[in-house]
Amino acid sequence: MNTLGYAILSVLARRPCSGYQLSTYLEVLWPAKHSQIYPLLTKMEQKGFLAFEHVEQTGKPDKKIFSITEAGKEALALWMKESPSDRIVRDEFLIKMYSMWFTDEENAKKLIHDRISKLKRKVSLREKKIIKVENEGAHHASKHFGRYVLLNRSNFLDKEEISWCNWVLKLISNTNFFKLVLGFLSAGTLNQINQSINFFGELPI
Amino acid sequence: MNTLGYAILSVLARRPCSGYQLSTYLEVLWPAKHSQIYPLLTKMEQKGFLAFEHVEQTGKPDKKIFSITEAGKEALALWMKESPSDRIVRDEFLIKMYSMWFTDEENAKKLIHDRISKLKRKVSLREKKIIKVENEGAHHASKHFGRYVLLNRSNFLDKEEISWCNWVLKLISNTNFFKLVLGFLSAGTLNQINQSINFFGELPI
DNA sequence: AGTCGCATGTAAAAGGTTACATGATTCG
DNA sequence: CGAATCATGTAACCTTTTACATGCGACT
Q1: Cβ of B18 less than 7 A from strand C
Q2: Could you tell me the residue range of the domain that residue A126 belongs to?
Q3: A Pfam family for this UniProt protein (chains A, B) (predicted)?
């Protein structure tokens, strides 16, 4: 079974869910589209890790409520003892930051300001969720502990990234980064950027 | 062209590289295996974004040094104006934190301590690189600016995650999280965990 | 004697996204 | 009247990983 499978077991270990609910719950844990979730649920049910019951609804489409089996719990318990594989981060914004020197100051600043906006939106959404968990009094003695600490983790890190963004903005202004680069390049057309490519030192990357 | 292609253009915009060098440089930007890089380099060369020259070596295998063309630079410049897609993070450790309540205190603490060790190792490696960039005097007026701010970003965030890890460890100890859970479960076998599954509130995830 | 670094490639398999398909209800 | 939510599924496609394939030199 793959990591998505264990993420599904982790959610179902707390509470039986439909595939639709799973897809929203998995967003913070291991994002996946429904087209990946539904076939995997079927596979896992066939292998005995999950069970499901049909629930008929009126006004809404019928659904399947999946729950974890004993075999599923054993699989999850074993997996919990394995050391986690390295995290994978793929972030186009980082590539654009890396190539900042290649664009104009206006665009570079816009990229950073947009990033800050996105991060702030995420942080404030999570803050509401955190307050909700705290009000339920479930933050340090239940299955909600994991959710509670993960929500906080995301907010700690996103706030730190906002600080970093502001730090970069300051660096750009204080050191006149773009003006200095343009100074070397005389004007800043692609041809002139070209001529400057081996102007600087020989550091890696 | 996909994001990996633009990551490659971003690296080659600074300095011509072999595919082998690219694979190491891309690690922080957009990780990729050589089996993905080599065929893409060929494709991008055929489309006119890259050019290469054969370099014969003695003692070492021959290599191809790729460099970005004018067409490549134009493509990169255009891409820099597009707003970046959302970051993708996949981290097994987060799933295990989420399912902390499902394992024993010893294992939970081990997972967190191992995470701290890994993060500390990464941070100290990066610190050396940062000092190197600063000594080259290249941090605020060159193509190395991007690399400099990205190295710092990773360290800011990893240090913040170390703080978070310690915060979680304290929470576990201070609130006797595991003892409280075991109290509810009476003993902690899988069967008894089973019986407790709907004991707590009805919060999402 | 064995592993690491340099160096390039292909093939197969697994993982993940986008698009196709359907359809009622509720809210603005 | 259009968009969002609930709800499940398949097919085609793209991306990424793992495995296969080779080979010399340097270091332990």
Answers
A1: yes
A2: 92-195
A3: Vir_act_alpha_C
